[in-house]
């Protein structure tokens, strides 16, 4: 098990890089989660619990960025833009016309730009991005359910930031297939949750501009959000036996 996880998590065997690895992973996850919380807040009737969750996500993100010794100036600047954009989105009124038509694109760009800056930091390990991929797909799903399409980074087709479920679901499948679920109950539980979650994500129908699911079933954003958070938490909790 140690050899297996070392393949995916080289930082775990190198204490000098462990802090960098954890911070870069956490930044991507918390940025996506804060965006999902904002979408839930607007999409589910402006419930205070969702707004409070967004603020908690933003605090977790800010704490990670502020404590990361290798953060470049552009990372701090793009973090501020993302934080401001999400809080602006929470401030718009309840009516559809209260949100400027171009704001969802601004939200997409703010998230993409920040995640791009995180990934460009020295020491980023693209092999360890499974939880970020799951959370990024969740943002896309909630965006289609509540405000319309999410604009991915078309200039980055070879990174998860430029991909939707048509490439990310197979990519996540491949990463999970490399883990031996038969010898570890935690991994088996992780893979079981993913099999349930990916049914909804594959139904997102990103290639269609009608904003209907491929199956015709209703979107299930609360369910997808809940299971995505649980899955990424489970993944991050994995440690060598």
From TrEMBL:
<keyword id="KW-0732">Signal</keyword>
<protein>
    <recommendedName>
        <fullName>NarX-like N-terminal domain-containing protein</fullName>
    </recommendedName>
</protein>
<feature type="signal peptide">
    <location>
        <begin position="1"/>
        <end position="18"/>
    </location>
</feature>
């Amino acid at each position: 098990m140690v050899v297996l996880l070392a393949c995916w998590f080289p930082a775990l065997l190198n204490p000098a890089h462990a802090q960098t690895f954890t911070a870069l992973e956490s930044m991507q996850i918390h940025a996506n989660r804060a965006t999902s919380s904002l979408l839930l807040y607007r999409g589910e009737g402006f419930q205070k619990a969702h707004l409070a969750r967004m603020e908690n996500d933003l605090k977790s993100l800010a704490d990670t960025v502020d404590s990361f010794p290798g953060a470049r100036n552009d990372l701090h600047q793009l973090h501020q833009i993302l934080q401001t954009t999400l809080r602006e989105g929470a401030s718009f009124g309840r009516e559809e016309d209260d949100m400027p038509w171009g704001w969802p694109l601004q939200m997409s760009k703010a998230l993409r730009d920040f995640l791009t800056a995180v990934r460009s930091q020295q020491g980023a390990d693209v092999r360890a991005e499974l939880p970020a991929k799951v959370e990024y797909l969740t943002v896309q799903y909630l965006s289609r359910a509540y405000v319309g399409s999410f604009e991915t980074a078309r200039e980055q087709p070879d990174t998860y930031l430029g991909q939707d479920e048509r490439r990310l679901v197979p990519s996540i499948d491949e990463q999970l297939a490399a883990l031996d679920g038969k010898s570890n109950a935690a991994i088996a539980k992780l893979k079981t949750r993913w099999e349930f979650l990916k049914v909804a994500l594959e139904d997102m129908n990103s290639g269609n501009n009608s904003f209907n699911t491929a199956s015709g079933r209703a979107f299930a954003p609360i369910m997808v959000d809940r299971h995505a958070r649980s899955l990424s938490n489970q993944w991050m909790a994995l440690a060598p036996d």
